[in-house]
Structure prediction request, 190 residues.
Amino acid sequence: MFERFTERARQVVTGAQQEARELRHGYIGTEHLLLAILGVPEDPAAAVLIEAGLDHEAARQAVRRLVGPGDDAAALAAIGVDLDAVREAVESAFGEGALDVRPEEEPKRRGWFRSGGSSVGRVPFTARAKKALELSLRESLRLKSGEIGVGHLLLGVLREGEGEGPAGRVLLDHGLDPGAVRQAVERTLG
Prediction:
């Protein structure tokens, strides 16, 4: 399927992986696809969202609010563990940097994150994101296009979520009507 993607659509898919890494999420969801689409503001499909008032930074903040941070500190804080206090206690007993992982000791597991924010291995797609990619192919076929572009990816994301998934929630929370966005994107695709 990816051989039918335009170069810019491929950039969006790899951009979604980068968005997930930067947010420290261990998966690529529709929200990351949406962020990556907004990361190419020169594309007509992204311009539809931007002109409607949803830019990359606003969407990123919305994703953080909806999904939360992907780091371990937030998860531990949710159950009452102060990671800074734990680190301080361990370092007072065993020396500064006792909890730091040396590069040669880093876990080689899929989806784990290094302290610098880069990922080890590939970040997996969620079922919703996979479905959105599949739907982008269907949208391309429906519109009789010979390739899958950024607009088709956005249509796939819109069709998959229909207001229920994280990307759909971002749109709705910004007062955007997914149906109206869909129509505007279809117009940009001709």
